[in-house]
Fold this protein.
Amino acid sequence: MRNKILVIDDEPSIIDLLQYNLKQAGFEILTALDGEEGKRLAETESPDFILLDLMLPKLDGMEVCKQLRQKQIMTPILMLTAKDEEIDKLLGLELGADDYMVKPFSPREVIARIKAILRRTQVQSETAVDNKFEETKIVIGELFIYPKKFEAYFKGDLIELTLKEFELLLFLARNRGRVQSRDELLNAVWKNEFSSDTRIVDVHISRLREKLKEETKRPVYIKTFRGIGYKLEEPKN
C-alpha cells in the first residue's frame, strides 16, 4: 500500500513540482491550496505525511499545525517556508512540526526527508505490534516510558508526543543522571536529518517540559546546565 502525502501550498507551481516528483517516487498525493482545505483533508483523509507551507491563505501553516496537534493528530509534518528567518522555523517546530525546509528546495531532498521520517514512523508502529506482550519500561519518578510501544505516561496519563519528542525523552531517560550536551542530543535524535542549529533541541526540551507540567524556573525532571545541555533525573523528595 502506497503512503499518502498531503501537500498544502498556495503556489500551483510548487504543487505541480511536488506532485510530479512524489508520484514518480511511488506516493499517493492529496493537495490543497489554502490552510482551511488542507486542515480539512488532514482530518478526513488520514494522510501518512503532511508537507505544509508556512504562508497560506485563509489559515496560515503555523495555525494549521497548531490546530491539528491540539486535536491530537500526530501525522508527521514537514514545514515549507520561503522565510529564511530562525523565528519562523523555531516557532513552527514549537507548535509541533517535525522538521522544516526553506524554499527553494530540491524535490530529491524533500523525498529523502519524507522517506527518512516515514521509515522511523513505520518502525515505531511495527515495533509496538511485534512487542505487544514483551514490554519493557523505564520508570523515573511518576514518569513511565515504554520504549517498545513508543508511549510515555506521566502521573498515569498518556503523554501525546511527536516522534522526535519521544526519541528525545527516551534518549534522556536512557542516560538519566548524566548531562547531555546539545550537540550530543542533536546527533542522537536528529542525526543527519537536520541542520547543526542546536536551538531545535531547546525547542523540543521546552515542549517536553510543558507536557510534563514542569515549572519553567524550577523544573523537577529535566534540568538545564547553562552553556552545556540537559539532564533527566529522578525527582528529589
